[in-house]
Design goal:
This protein is of the alpha+beta class and 497 residues long. Among the domains are: 77 residues, Phosphorylase Kinase, domain 1; 195 residues, Orthogonal Bundle (Transferase(Phosphotransferase), domain 1). Helices cover 24% and strands 11% of the residues. The strands form 3 sheets. The protein has a 6-stranded antiparallel β-sheet. β5 and β6 form a beta hairpin. The longest helix is centred in the middle third of the chain and has 20 residues. The chain is globular. The N and C termini lie far apart (47 Å). 49% of the residues are buried. It binds adenosine-5'-triphosphate. The site of adenosine-5'-triphosphate has 23 residues, from β2 and β4.
Length: 497
């Protein structure tokens, strides 16, 4: 199925949008099945000069998927997935709907191996002779300023002799226990200690790598606590003496903080620097990213009900972002992770705000950023608004339903040319089982003219979602889109490093 998909790597360069980088299955890239496709008069070709279609016809073969692509068109070293070969997306638990395979295959697989890799179980760790853990914040802790003021803990020094079981930014400081050092006057909350598992890499991006961090009582600790360490994702970024780069990181953290509380946005827990390296501690998406989900299944895409559930959660997050005047600018399959490694229906979480920016109403942005396949045509033309995020969501839904991208080419230039041309089809081979309503929904997002493109709020009211989503879940997404129940935090002062 998604043999012609490859991981996209975001670029911040002004006039280049990169798709180079990780390629999960290099040997799988097929030659385009052009010859296998019968010519069809019913091909649905949408062009930006045409009025937006209300309902998309099914069937027809358009241009083929891309041909075999080079491992790395930028000459950068290929990135490799650290999730392992076993899919983390299957559950061995029984009972609907969590057991349901969205690919419609009804297959369940053992995800133990993968979970142990993600969670760094004791068995996994024992088998490694050389552990590469760095513990921050124990006795003699490194001084780790909190450059963004994110941590709820006031102390300038990371760590405590008795770190609490979990960090709850809005909760009171951890209790001081008998073996804690006695504070001299008042109780000053200490920042928690994290164990950084450098060898448990869960993802690599253009700015660094993401690995597991944990916090809590080590197993067998005598304090009588549960002995379970809480796991986090830790993005490790080497700092450079470059004001623009620092400003970008600051914006990333500010955005993460502002969005804290939304069910479909990854939760920020802590930020600190040690020895010129920045660590951003967030909630861990144990189920891995959607790119992995899609590319580890041999079928063409997911079921409509799974796609609709997924998209409504995405729209909820994006509507919330836009209501806070934040444009993500890098929405792609790789940037949505599943909360649970056991339940493929668990909530999705949006990650990677490295290209996000604040905007003012009506402002035209001009910086060309994003990832191949997903970038909107108006971004490539250097005049765009937050509507570019909806285009990217349209690409994602198309991919979820079919397993292939709507715009493709043998390299970045060809992909960009295809996007700027704006023509795409719903090849019968890939959309055979997909309803007209689903394709109509995709068309509302892949509308070339942003006047016709749906906003996230509009898309949430589309009949296809109402038909395919659990009403209660959809209602929750609509509430989330409006920020109901979320206390947004103010923007932070500029970072001082
Ligand atoms: N909180 C998380 N939970 C689970 N996996 C994560 C988490 N954060 C990141 N990842 C994994 O790590 C990968 C890279 O992370 P991220 O996108 O934040 O890095 P980046 O350097 O900004 O990447 P890019 O080059 O795509 O912008 C993600 O695609 C995802 O697979």
């Amino acid at each position: 199925m998604s043999k012609w998909l490859r991981r996209g790597q975001a670029s911040t360069s002004n006039n280049f949008v990169s798709s180079a980088g990780q390629q999960s299955h290099p040997s799988d890239f097929p030659q385009p099945p052009r010859n296998e496709m019968p010519p069809s008069a019913s091909s649905a070709v949408y062009h930006h000069q045409s009025p937006p279609p209300q309902q998309s016809p099914i069937g027809g073969y358009g241009a083929p998927p891309p041909s075999t692509m080079p491992m790395d068109v930028d000459g950068q070293p290929p990135r490799s997935s650290k999730y392992g070969q076993t899919s983390p997306y299957h559950s061995q638990q029984s009972g609907p709907p969590t057991h349901y395979d969205p690919m419609g295959r009804g297959v369940v697989m053992d995800d133990h191996h993968n979970r142990s890799r993600l969670s760094g179980s004791s068995r996994d760790r024992r088998s490694r002779p050389q552990q590469q853990h760095t513990e921050y914040g124990r006795h003699g802790a490194m001084h780790a300023p909190d450059p963004f003021g994110v941590s709820p803990f006031k102390g300038p020094v990371l760590g405590s002799s008795t770190p609490p079981d979990s960090i709850q930014p809005s909760s009171p400081p951890p209790a001081v226990t008998a073996d804690s050092p006695q504070p001299s006057s008042e109780v000053v909350p200490r920042r928690p200690a994290y164990l950084l598992h450098r060898d448990l890499v869960i993802g690599k991006g253009s700015y660094g790598q993401v690995c597991i961090a944990s916090r809590g009582e080590p197993e067998g600790h005598s304090s009588g606590r549960s002995g379970k360490r809480k796991k986090f994702a830790c993005k490790c970024v080497m700092l450079r003496n470059d004001p623009k780069y620092i400003a970008k990181l600051q914006e990333e953290v500010n955005v993460l903080r502002e969005l804290r509380g939304h069910d479909n946005v990854i939760r920020l827990y802590d930020v600190f620097c040690v020895d010129n390296e920045l660590f951003i501690i967030t909630e861990l998406g144990r189920g891995g990213d959607l790119f992995h989900l899609l590319t580890t299944h041999p079928k063409h895409g997911v079921t409509e009900s799974y796609a609709a559930k997924t998209v409504s959660e995405m729209l909820s997050a994006v509507a919330f972002l836009h209501s806070r005047n934040i444009c993500h600018r890098d929405l792609k399959l790789e940037n949505w992770v599943l909360e649970s490694g056991k339940d493929v229906w668990s909530p999705l979480k949006l990650i990677d705000f490295g290209l996000s920016t604040h905007f003012t109403a009506g402002q035209r942005l001009s910086r060309v950023v994003g990832s191949s396949y997903y970038v909107a045509p108006e971004v490539l033309k250097k005049s765009y608004t937050e509507a570019c995020d909806l285009w990217s969501l349209g690409v994602i839904v198309y991919m979820l339903l079919s397993g292939a991208p709507p715009f493709y080419g043998k390299n970045d230039e060809a992909i960009k040319a295809s996007i700027v041309q704006g023509e795409y089809t719903f090849p019968h081979e890939l959309f055979r089982d997909v309803s007209d309503e689903a394709m109509a929904f995709v068309s509302t997002l892949l509308s070339y003219n942003i006047e016709y493109r749906y906003t996230a709020d509009q898309a949430l009211t589309h009949p296809w979602l109402a038909l395919n989503c659990d009403p209660e879940a959809l209602h929750k997404c609509k509430n989330g889109a409006r920020g109901i129940g979320i206390v947004a935090e103010p923007r932070l002062d500029p970072m001082q490093l």
